[in-house]
Amino acid sequence: MQMQQMRAGRAHQVPVPPANAAPLKVSREMQQQLRQVRHSAFERHQENAQWTKELLEGSNRQNESVRTASDLAASQEELQKRIEDKEKSTDELEQQLVQQEQAQQAAQRRFEEMLAALKAVGDASTLKECEEKLEVERKLLPNKQRKMEIVRL
Length: 153
Fold this sequence. Notes:
By secondary structure, the protein is an all-alpha fold. It contains 3 helices and no strands. The longest helix has about 45 residues. The protein is flat and about 75 Å long. The chain starts with about 25 loop residues before the first helix and ends in a 13-residue tail after the last helix.
């Protein structure tokens, strides 16, 4: 039996319905949820990029340290001291991270309390005061990126 080459014809095109010109109606709650999801995805993307960068830099540094360690005879005491220093630095970083998380949670609680007060407000003057407080708090909230430290022992 002999194989024969055949030329396939063009793929059939399937008609696609036209896009709806009317804007999509989404509730405010759904918009807020979508914003939060988009923001958390962006944060995850930033963290992953940072971790990847640090991992790549760390692997280069680790290769260099392996070369220097094999070239030089490091004593057991020096290695033990390095390990203790690394443990201390990791403990300090963990404490800093816990403090930052607590501060951020406290700020978030204040922010949510003000939002709840804004929703419950009846008269215009109280509404104005709450909006001013809210703007002040919004400026105080940390807006810089979170950075995770990778520590090698």
